[in-house]
Amino acid sequence: MLAAQQPTPPVDPPKNAFPPVTLPEKFTGYTHPRHAIHRALTEINLDEIEKLDEQFATATVQELKAIWGRFSDQRPSDGQILQSSLAYKVLLSNLASKDGQFAAESLCSNEDCKFAASSFSLVMEAWAHQDAKAASSWYLDDARATLRKSEKLVAGQRFANSVYNHLATNDNAALIKSIDSLHSTQEIWGAIEGLRSSYKESGIESAKLLVELQSLETNSTAAKSVFEFQKTADQLKKLKDVDLRNDLHNLFQSEMQPTISQP
Fold first, then answer.
1. Is the pLDDT of residue 145 over 70?
2. CB-based contacts of 253: which residues, under 8 Å, 6+ apart?
3. Containing structural domain, residue 98
4. pLDDT value at residue 15
5. What percentage of the chain carries pLDDT values higher than 70?
6. Into how many domains does the chain fold?
7. Which one has a higher pLDDT value, 162 or 25?
């Protein structure tokens, strides 16, 4: 009688198959199908993205630059909606918080890439949150006049909100004047939004801001329209009748549409 054949015990993979020496070195092994980095770049897995974000947040700026430079030929191509796009945006936002100019200029050199267009506002927002003065000085410099007119790379509403909110003081003549340098409706909207918030926190009457906006040469009409739109929107929020509030908001928005578009 033949003895029953014993099942072959499973063989565990080596524990140190992918030693995490440094973050850039971990990225070099990302092509292995079992590697966490590979999974994060090829599958829609938010847990992996969160883990990457934690790693990037504690990495040095040199490590983040090394990762970005190493994968210059493997970044998401136009039209791709992949996990890799999310991973690289997480990488860029963390890099921007440590070296905003490097991250911004990296995208400027690839202006025609859709990935750059979709990531630029995230980079500028992260930079402004970390260092509003440096971010605004770079973006509003005369050397970036062409960039500010770009329809592809737009710093965005949140960037402008953060910059103008953080930099507002009792004497905002120069800051107000810089609104004339903005070309994007989103950025004008964010700038006024940030200034209104700062004035409110400082106990300054909003009427003072409206007077200051009238001194603008290029964007005076747009800025005043945004101001009045936001002010009315705030008043509508106080109405308890939800249906009436929505009806009035829609009516007001349609009336304002020829002058300024809400972002």
1. yes
2. 229, 262
3. 29-71+80-128
4. 41
5. 68
6. 1
7. 162
Q: What's the pTM value of the predicted model, to 2 decimals? A: 0.74
Of 88 and 103, the structure prediction assigns the larger pLDDT to 103
Token reading at 2: 């033949």
In-domain check, residue 159 = no
Helices (H), 76-156: 83-98, 100-108, 114-130, 132-139, 145-148
Mean pLDDT of the chain: 79
- Give 256's contacts (C-beta < 8 A, 6+ positions apart): 225, 228, 229, 262
CB count in 10 Å sphere of residue 97: 20
Neighbours of 118 (CB within 10 A): 14
pLDDT at 70 exceeding the cut of 90? no
Domain presence at residue 87: yes
| Tokens of residue 40, six digits | 């994060």
* Residue 167: inside a domain: no
Arithmetic mean of pLDDT, 108-133: 90
